[in-house]
């Protein structure tokens, strides 16, 4: 009995924590199906007259399919570019020694401490000189590389035994074969984690798309949802309907990558 008490207490704590995490999403969904709902101090989790009218109104007010497609394409491209650039850079920092490698890596990591707000003006001037204002390429370029992604994948690659590299080198494999056939399969959990973070950051990005994009049809989802808030009154059921829709791709991505993270953990290690 004594051994079961800590387990029961831990399960209760986990359950309470899970409920606290789920409640905001549940509250957003309930508000979205409650016509005329506001940010009430006394939430009602069971609406009296549930309706999907907020979702219909959302589709009428905005070219919602195009806006979601804009965010989806930008998030997918950003994720793919970050996976490619971060994995290649991480392999160099992990497997290819050169003079000053640690110093260069430290300087590269130091860029993580620079907030985006500081970079907005020079990035905007650069994009204007390149003629990329109000273009998707202008939104995409600042996010094709990630210092966090390089750090995450480098740490994962450092845990892969270099004996595998030496064995592959004896078999005539070069760096690209070692990188693609040996190292990458063994860091799949880190790749899946970076995929989630990169997609999430791009999907929720607000400041840079707001500054660089001018055409209404080119807006991303966070910018379009911010435009739903009125100056004096806000229809929170419509805003929450958009928020619920914005959560669905991230939920699907998490469910998809969770399987690969488990497979990656099971496939790592030496026999």
UniProtKB/TrEMBL annotation:
Segments forming domain ABC transmembrane type-1: 68-257
Ranges in coiled-coil conformation: none
Keyword Kinase attributed: no
Gene Ontology BP terms: transmembrane transport
Topology with respect to the bilayer: Multi-pass membrane protein
CDD domains to which the protein is assigned, alphabetical: TM_PBP2
GO cellular component: plasma membrane
Keywords, sorted A to Z: Cell membrane, Membrane, Sugar transport, Transmembrane, Transmembrane helix, Transport
Membrane-crossing segments per the record: 12-30, 67-93, 105-125, 137-157, 178-200, 238-256
Tagged with keyword Secreted: no
Superkingdom classification of source: Bacteria
Any matching Pfam family: BPD_transp_1
Location relative to the cell: Cell membrane
InterPro entries xrefs: MetI-like, MetI-like_sf
SUPFAM superfamilies on file: MetI-like
Family according to the record: Belongs to the binding-protein-dependent transport system permease family.
Name of the protein this chain belongs to: Multiple sugar transport system permease protein
Naturally occurring in which organism (per UniProt): Arthrobacter bambusae
